[in-house]
Amino acid sequence: MTKKTIYLDHAATTPIDKKVLKEMIPYFSQNFGNASSLHSFGQEADQAVEKARMQVAKYFNANLNEIIFTSGATESNNLAIKGVVKAYYKKEKKKPHVITTTFEHHCVLETVKKMEKENLIEATFINPKKDGVISVADIKNAIKSNTIFVSMMYVNNEIGTVQPISEIGKMIKKNNAKIIFHTDATQAVNYFDCNVEKLGVDLLSMSAHKIYGPKGVGALYAKFGLNIAKIQDGGAQEFGLRAGTINTPGIVGLGSAISMINDQRTKNNMQIQKLRDYLIAKILKEIPDSRLNGSKIKRSPNNVNVNFSRVEGESLLMMLSQEGVFASTGSACSSGSLSPSHVLLALGLKPEETHGSLRLTLGKNTTKKEIDYAVKVIKGSVEKLRKVSGNVLRDFYLNNKK
Ligand code: PMP
């Protein structure tokens, strides 16, 4: 008999939707043409890519020539930041100022830090407030005469807090219409309005594998006329901004996945949020010394991030995994390292306070029964770990007693 598995790690990745997979399959073997080829095989692939571009553009309320397909949000974020800075340098020949936050995904944070280290930009990193939300006034106060770019995530991938993107968009345009505003919407697309006009963004990054689409494909919305340069050389694909053979099956999957969100969003959000609140309440009630990280209100419908004092998060994860409950301590990309989460540190937690954190992210197929089982397993594991750490502390005390 296969062991029961409960997947509560949808912020790391989602399973591909069966309908999405079905639409992708012909483009692997049957209609395998290169979308840049001029023969009919190529043209068929090209038509499929353009249909997907239409589906993505519709979701973001963008034009077709404003959607650039990439290999995922990491690449979209790199292209957005490096592309804008590179184009600015070419034109202005001086060092620009960039604003971002301290709790971005590593692909934004490391890009900005590296460019700062290489003396290409001046950078300001804004801390969120204790509740995991960035203040509009803090961004406003950081703007300088040479600020050209603001990059801020829409929903934080670890604690699920939602940032006031449209208010910041309005404030930036009022302050200095020339400043380019980018949002990493990877964790938002499934749950929140991503109409680029309403958000007031010039650039928006997203990834298919967070929305029940395939891995290795994503998109960057780049407002028409924006001064942005390519960052990799080769062919002229994607309006000359992204060289490389077009990933037709992946792009078809992205288009299919995004077109399904519109029909289902409100219903799914309500169902997931109800379960999320049930899960939060159950953990806080049944497990002593537990605390929710980040705002309860300004939070993605699928995210629960809780801290258990006197528990090591990685040990907890291992125990849960043995019982078939799959979760995460922070973002999947950074787990594997035992350094404290940069997101929790940004909230003002001390390193020792970040260790017992657990991220549980629900999906559209998560059930109440699964939540009940998960809480039972989490409770038992936390109790066991606390007993062990209690014994270790006692032994340490006894061994060191004179
Ligand atoms: N940004 C955020 C907020 C994310 O959650 C992720 C994925 N963990 C990424 C960027 C990177 O996305 P991808 O896996 O498509 O490169």
Attribute tags:
binds 4'-deoxy-4'-aminopyridoxal-5'-phosphate, Aspartate Aminotransferase, domain 2, seven-stranded mixed beta sheet, 12 helices, Aspartate Aminotransferase, domain 1, 402 residues, 2 domains, three-stranded antiparallel beta sheet
Give a structural overview.
The chain is of the alpha/beta class and 402 residues long. The protein has helices at 18-24, 40-60, 73-92, 106-117, 136-142, 165-175, 196-199, 248-286, 313-322, 342-346, 351-354, 368-399, and strands at 6-7, 67-70, 97-101, 122-126, 147-153, 180-184, 203-207, 218-222, 290-292, 303-308, 325-326, 357-361. It folds into two domains: 6-14 and 264-394, Aspartate Aminotransferase, domain 1 (Alpha-Beta Complex), CATH 3.90.1150.10; 18-259, Aspartate Aminotransferase, domain 2. The chain is 43% helix and 13% strand. The termini are far apart. The model has no long low-confidence stretch (mean pLDDT 93). Bound molecules: 4'-deoxy-4'-aminopyridoxal-5'-phosphate.
Secondary structure topology:
Blueprint: E1 6-7, H1 18-24, H2 40-60, E2 67-70, H3 73-92, E3 97-101, H4 106-117, E4 122-126, H5 136-142, E5 147-153, H6 165-175, E6 180-184, H7 196-199, E7 203-207, E8 218-222, H8 248-286, E9 290-292, E10 303-308, H9 313-322, E11 325-326, H10 342-346, H11 351-354, E12 357-361, H12 368-399
Parallel strand pairs: 1-11, 3-4, 3-5, 5-6, 6-7
Antiparallel strand pairs: 2-8, 7-8, 9-10, 10-12
Helix pairs in contact: 1-8, 2-8, 3-4, 8-12, 9-12
The chain binds 4'-deoxy-4'-aminopyridoxal-5'-phosphate.
4'-deoxy-4'-aminopyridoxal-5'-phosphate binds next to helix 3.
